[in-house]
Specification:
By secondary structure, the chain is α/β, with parallel strands linked by helices. It has seven helices and four strands.
């Protein structure tokens, strides 16, 4: 929906140097040469993009903004490259709490109403019990083990990286309420340094103009103040 174009222009108007590009093998970018795996190749592409801006414009501090797989790739790159000083992840990693499912079911019941709930239960009872579900994360995009994520986030926070996590209303089965991240990680001292927003009015693919404007506002309000990209 050209949201990346709108976001790039909005950030440029704020005085930021901005580069948007396709990873190897996606969109207008040619496939990469070599045998790197998907995650390693994405990290290499992001590092190459930063190298390019550094060589051409002398920029040596960067913020990475990613949605879904883009958020995942940005996280792994930030861990490996100390030039990254800002990390904005939308619908990247999610860790459930004991409240996640009950709140999900409650919200679904409100959306469907009594007749809708009865209809869904009847459909489920009549349907073959074959699992056709598709995970939101697969293979190299999967959540890291929670202990590894804690170590990674502590490393980024200790390094001074400004981090914001944004969760949309489209991932209700894995992130269903505003305080979920704090409930999952609030016992860790680094959690207070991480900004987390839950925006059920924003959809994962940013279809509506309102969702696009809200997403851009979230990024613009978060963006670190500096002369770099």
């Amino acid at each position: 929906h050209r949201n990346n174009v709108r976001l790039a222009r909005a950030m440029a108007e704020k005085g930021k140097w901005v580069l948007r590009f396709d990873l190897s093998g996606h969109g207008d970018s040619r496939p990469a040469l070599g045998g790197l795996g998907p995650r390693e190749q994405a990290v290499a592409d992001l590092k190459s993009a930063m190298d390019c801006l550094s060589d051409k414009f002398g920029i040596d501090r960067f913020c990475l903004i990613g949605l879904c797989s883009g958020a995942v790739h940005s996280y792994w790159t930030a861990l490996q490259d100390e030039r990254v000083v800002g990390l904005f992840m939308m619908d990247g990693f999610w860790y459930r709490t004991w409240l996640t499912k009950p709140i999900q079911y409650w919200k679904r019941m409100i959306q469907l109403g009594l007749i809708g709930v009865v209809s869904r239960v009847f459909q489920y009872w009549r349907a073959p019990k074959t699992d056709h579900s598709v995970g939101l994360n697969d293979d190299y995009l999967s959540n890291p083990p929670i202990d590894d994520f804690v170590v990674g986030m502590r490393k980024l926070v200790d390094r001074g990286v400004k981090i914001k996590l944004l969760y949309s209303g489209s991932v209700l089965d894995v992130y269903s309420y505003a305080k979920q991240f704090q409930h999952a990680f609030g016992r860790h001292d680094w959690c207070a340094a991480v900004t987390c927003s839950y925006r059920p009015d924003i959809d994962h693919t940013l279809i509506s103009k309102d969702a696009q404007r809200a997403f851009i506002d979230e990024v613009r309000d978060w963006a670190p103040v500096s002369r770099e990209a």
